[in-house]
Design a protein that fits this description.
37% of the residues lie in helices and 18% in strands. The protein is an alpha/beta fold. An eight-stranded mixed sheet has the order 13-23-22-14-15-21-16-20. Strands 3-2-1-4-5 form a five-stranded mixed sheet. A five-stranded mixed sheet has the order 8-7-6-11-12, with helices on both faces.
Length: 576
């Protein structure tokens, strides 16, 4: 049985394929269109998924869509009536836009599938796709469930419990009561793009003092005894909540940063980022603790866009009472394609659970001949490195302080590069963070970089007692290792660790071990292979373009090594 999962109603459009219950491919549309966080209908991703899975449209039995048309319309109608002069923008967003997406879905089904063998169509509510879908691919037979995002269809949270193939909803919050929207407002206040740059706010927060505006932030959003969220909407331009901060917000927290006029930050911007980051953590932690008390479960599954707040996730791991937390590598709306597919397979169709999503490398892969053809078409000089020499050679380049583009195997899904579409560097070099931010990523100087480390070596360097293969649980670098690893240690002593597992990514694991032979440290600086504002590279051509547009020194494409002309002699010396 073949199932297509699709997110086509929200940003980060994505398609996946399940074959006999196994996730065989999942691709985000942005990787193919090169439009970051695109909400365009994922035509390209669908075609590429079928090609990768070796299927034709006639082979598809079911299509699961991560939305349910008409859900919560009574709530939307009540909200719309309060909109007054803003009624038309509201109707465009909630009615016309939805109808457009439904028409796109209908047109796609009509055009893509033979009329005689159309697949069965299933609509899965957005937060069910998040929460229940993540649970169904988790390693847990039972777990508490928490999904938190901006607004989804109209719900903004889902609190529940999953057992075997079933799930139970214990409570939801609804727009405009939204932790995601409040955090987006703080993001806008700091001069970043809403619903896109929230990770920047998280990275900026350690530079500020959370106590300066801590009490004020706690009056904007908080958690009630029954696990429900509460928001004081007077701080926002109600009822257009979601379009920005209101007058009371500015009166309380000061003037927002205008990045066009202010390239830097004033202290109150840093303090606001710190306050709302801490309040977001406190809210998530409060809900998690209440879920633990109510469900008595040992494990928690977190999903939704707010689940990408890895600092909050780290606190949940350490402070909530749960033994561990599972967060899907594509925890945002992209992952709802996978979630909807598994709700269909396991819950709706009643098939037994037989898959754990512990391998994020489910995207496209290019053959050696395709990579060589791309290099030849670009008229580049390159060297083919034998398999036994590739990792030692790359490790020597990294130890020498060079910055590598690393393109291997199948592409990761989700916003984190996890060793197959990565930029790699030596974390022991003190100025490496500044070099990569300025010369490679072309982004703000304050933004930190993450480490990757073999899971068996992680306890020597990091205060982390659980695995984190998807780089979604921030932990503390051991105090004695912070000066050893300056390029990946943030100003507050933390790092967003990726634990590398030999049985899942043997080549990347081996690279760490080869680097350890030279440096004494099995840790690498690992950041996504892209520049600010662009998606992670998907193809060899994407990688080559990024390589020559940035300050990368070397590019490793599978077994092929490309050097900038100024570094060609380094390769000759290494391989002589």
């Amino acid at each position: 049985m073949n199932i297509i999962g699709i997110n086509c109603a929200f940003h980060d459009s994505t398609v996946c394929v399940l074959q006999e219950g196994l996730l065989t491919v999942a691709i985000e549309e942005e990787r193919l269109t090169r439009q970051k966080h695109t909400s365009a209908f994922p035509y390209r991703a669908f075609a590429r998924c079928l090609e990768t899975a070796g299927l034709a449209p006639a082979d598809i039995d079911h299509v699961a869509v991560s939305m349910q048309p008409g859900v919560d319309w009574h709530r939307k109608a009540a909200y719309g009536l309060k909109s007054g002069k803003n009624l038309m923008p509201f109707l465009r967003a909630q009615v016309l836009n939805l109808r457009h997406r439904q028409r796109s879905l209908s047109s796609w089904i009509s055009a893509s599938f033979p009329s005689a063998v159309k697949p069965t169509l299933h609509f899965v509510p957005h937060h069910v796709a998040h929460a229940a879908g993540s649970f169904l691919v988790s390693p847990y037979e039972s777990a508490a469930l928490l999904s938190v995002d901006g607004s989804g269809e109209w719900a903004t949270t889902f609190k529940g419990v999953g057992r075997a193939n079933t799930y139970e909803c214990l409570g939801q919050d609804y727009f405009p009561v939204s932790l995601g929207e409040v955090y987006e407002a703080a993001t806008e206040f700091c001069g970043f793009k809403m619903n896109c740059d929230e990770g920047k706010t998280m990275g900026l927060a350690p530079l500020g003092d959370p106590d300066v505006f801590g009490e004020a932030a706690s009056k904007v959003i908080w958690v009630n005894e029954d696990m429900s969220l509460q928001v004081d909407l007077s701080y926002f331009d109600y009822p257009r909540f979601g379009s920005g901060c209101g007058r009371k917000f500015y009166e309380t927290f000061g003037q927002p940063r205008n990045p066009d006029r202010e390239p830097g930050f004033e202290q109150h911007h840093l303090d606001v980022a710190a306050a709302f980051q801490k309040q977001a953590e406190e809210c998530i932690l409060a809900i998690a603790r209440k879920l633990r008390e109510r469900t008595r479960e040992d494990y928690l599954v977190i999903s939704g866009g707010v689940a990408l707040n890895s600092v909050a996730n780290g606190r949940v791991v350490r402070e909530s009472g749960f033994k561990d937390v599972y967060v899907m590598p594509a925890a945002g709306d992209n992952g709802t394609a996978i979630g909807a597919a598994y709700v269909c397979h396991n819950h709706i169709l009643g098939r037994p659970r037989a898959f754990v999503h512990d391998d994020p490398y489910v995207g496209t892969q290019y053959s050696k001949s395709a990579i060589r053809r791309a290099l030849d078409e670009c008229k580049l000089e390159y060297r083919m490195i034998s398999e036994e020499k590739l990792e030692p050679t790359a490790a020597r380049l990294l130890q020498s302080g060079h910055i590598l583009g690393w393109f291997q195997g199948r592409m990761e899904i989700g916003p984190r590069a996890l060793g197959n579409r990565s930029i790699l560097a030596n974390p022991t070099v003190p100025d490496m963070k500044d070099r990569i931010n300025a010369e490679v990523k072309h982004r703000e100087a304050f933004r930190p970089f993450a480490p990757s480390c073999p899971v068996e070596d992680a306890p020597r360097f990091f205060e982390q007692n659980v695995a984190d293969p998807f780089m979604l649980k921030v932990c503390y670098v051991r105090p004695e290792m912070r000066d050893v690893l300056p390029a990946i240690t943030h100003v507050d002593g933390t790092a967003r660790l990726q634990t590398v597992h030999a049985d899942i990514n043997s080549r990347y694991h081996k690279l760490h071990k080869e680097f350890e032979k030279l440096s004494g440290v099995p840790v690498l600086l690992n950041t996504s292979f892209n520049v600010m504002g662009e998606p992670i590279v998907e193809s060899p051509i994407d990688a080559i373009r990024c390589f020559f547009a940035t300050g990368l020194d070397f590019l490793v494409l599978d077994d092929y090594l490309v050097a900038k002309p100024m570094h060609a002699h380094v390769v000759d010396a290494l391989l002589s």
